[in-house]
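Structure in, sequence out. Go:
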C-alpha cells in the first residue's frame, strides 16, 4: 500500500468498510462509492420506496464481460497445451452462477451485500444475488483501478485459491441435458413435473421432479423452474451413478413396460389375424345383393305362335315356288 493510500485509509470516514474491502481486494480502493453501488441489490429500492436507480445491475453487466475476459486470459496463459474445448468448458464452469455464489461466500463478499432479502436462506436455493454481486464487484474494480488490477485480483485472490481448474473442467455443466441423454440412450420415457409452488419472502420457490418410467428419480427446488429442474436432474444423476435403489426401480419399471408392450402388440396382431380370417369379401358382397337382381321376366309365348320347324318349312316352300316361276 502506498503512503497516499495509507493516509486516505487512516482519515476515511468509512474506515470499517475500507478495511473490509482491503481484506477482500488485497489493495486499497480509491472510489468507495462505486463499491457501495456494486454491493447494493435492487430489492433495497423496493423496500425503501426510494427508486434512485443506484443498484448493481449495470455494474453486473460490465463485470460479467471483464470477468470473462480475465478468466479467458488466465486460462490461455496458464494452459498453453490444452485445446479450445478444455479452455471453453473450464471458463464456463468458472463463471457460472453457482461457482460465483461460492466465491462470494468464500471471500466474505456476501457479508457486505445490501439486500432486502434473506441471503442466508437463499444460499441453499441457488440464489444468484451473491454471484451477481461478485460480477458487479469485478466491474467496480475495473472502473476504480483498471484492467490490470482486475486481473491481479482475480488471479491472486480468487483464481489461485478457489479453483482447481482440472476438476472444474471435468464437471458437468447441464445436469438436465445429461439425464435426458441417459434416458434416450436406454429408451426410457421421462418427464419433468412441477410438484409445488411456494411463495416465500425471497420469492416463489418451485419444487420439481423428474419421472423416469413412472419412477420419481430425483427431486429439486429453486427460485426458478429451470433451477428446480437442474437440481432434480442432479439428484437423479446422483441416484443413478450411485447405483441407488431408484436405479433398480427404473430398470424394473422399464422391463415391465417393455413386457406389457410386447403383450399388447401380440394381442393386436392376433385380433387383426382373426379379423382377416373371418373376412370373405366375395361372400360379403354377394350377401348384400338381392337374389332377383337383374332377372328378367320370361317372355310369354303367343298362343298362335308357330314352331321353328314350321317356319323353316314355309320358307323353303316359298323359295321353291319362286324358283319355278323364274324358269317359266
Amino acid at each position: 500500500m502506498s503512503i497516499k493510500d495509507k493516509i486516505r485509509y487512516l482519515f476515511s470516514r468509512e474506515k470499517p468498510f475500507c478495511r473490509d474491502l482491503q481484506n477482500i481486494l488485497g489493495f486499497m480502493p480509491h472510489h468507495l462509492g462505486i463499491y457501495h453501488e456494486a454491493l447494493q441489490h435492487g430489492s433495497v429500492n423496493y423496500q425503501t420506496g426510494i427508486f434512485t436507480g443506484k443498484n448493481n445491475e449495470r455494474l453486473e453487466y460490465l463485470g460479467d464481460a471483464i470477468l470473462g475476459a480475465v478468466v479467458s486470459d488466465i486460462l490461455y496463459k496458464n494452459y498453453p497445451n490444452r485445446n479450445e474445448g478444455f479452455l471453453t468448458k473450464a471458463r464456463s464452469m468458472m463463471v457460472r452462477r453457482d461457482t460465483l455464489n461460492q466465491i462470494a461466500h468464500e471471500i466474505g463478499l456476501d457479508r457486505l451485500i445490501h439486500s432486502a432479502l434473506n441471503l442466508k436462506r437463499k444460499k441453499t436455493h441457488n440464489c444468484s444475488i451473491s454471484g451477481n454481486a461478485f460480477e458487479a464487484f469485478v466491474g467496480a474494480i475495473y472502473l476504480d483501478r483498471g484492467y490490470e488490477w482486475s486481473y491481479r485480483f482475480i488471479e491472486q485472490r480468487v483464481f489461485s485459491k478457489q479453483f482447481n481448474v482440472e476438476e472444474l473442467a471435468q464437471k458437468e455443466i447441464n445436469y438436465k441435458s445429461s439425464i435426458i441423454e441417459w434416458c434416450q440412450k436406454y429408451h426410457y420415457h421421462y418427464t419433468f413435473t412441477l410438484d409445488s409452488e411456494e411463495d416465500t419472502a425471497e420469492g416463489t420457490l418451485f419444487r420439481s421432479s423428474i419421472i423416469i418410467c413412472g419412477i420419481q428419480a430425483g427431486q429439486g427446488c429453486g427460485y426458478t423452474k429451470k433451477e428446480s429442474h437442474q437440481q432434480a436432474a442432479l439428484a437423479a444423476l446422483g441416484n443413478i451413478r450411485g447405483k441407488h435403489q431408484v436405479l433398480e426401480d427404473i430398470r424394473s419399471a422399464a422391463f415391465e413396460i417393455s413386457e406389457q408392450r410386447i403383450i399388447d402388440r401380440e394381442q393386436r396382431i392376433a385380433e387383426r389375424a382373426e379379423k382377416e380370417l373371418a373376412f370373405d369379401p366375395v361372400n360379403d358382397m354377394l350377401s348384400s345383393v338381392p337374389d332377383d337382381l337383374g332377372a328378367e321376366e320370361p317372355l310369354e309365348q303367343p298362343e298362335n305362335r308357330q314352331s321353328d320347324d314350321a317356319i323353316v318349312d314355309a320358307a323353303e316352300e316359298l323359295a321353291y315356288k319362286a324358283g319355278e316361276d323364274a324358269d317359266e
